[in-house]
Amino acid sequence: MFAALFKRAEQSVDSAIGDLGNRILITIPFLIAVGFAAASLTIYFDRLYGAELGTLLVAGVFCVLGLVVALVVHLRKQASTSNSNSQNQAEQAEEKADNPAAPSIFDDDAVMAVVSSAAPIVIPAMVRTGLKNWPILLAAAAGLYVASRSEHGTAETTPEAPPPPSS
Asked: Based on the domain organization, do 91 and 123 belong to the same domain?
């Protein structure tokens, strides 16, 4: 029962990672082209308006471009959320009828897919990194211990300074 669930989750994560990798490979040449376009636009505006104003204009163009991209991403996410909400409402109603307990964060299939497929990779890497850097981890633990100690214990053991002699 769980093997099929883990297999499906692993396939969905592998598909998502593969799709993301393809998108990154497609995007890299366009990012380089945007860099060259920005450089030439900066040189043109610097020649036309001066160095300060030209650079500010290029910065403004990129701010506007960023706002447009953010708006498009927001609208796409909102549209996909509304489509998936209508499909998932019937499934959630069935699940709530079957399971009256409070929902957990780990009930989400996407979270479980990511956790179950990432754990075999992340945990050994964390152990290897911890073993390589054990002096740093030990120093950090000692620093946290010293910082967490209360000031009351050290204040009681410190003797008071004698009053200055009066002349």
From this structure: no
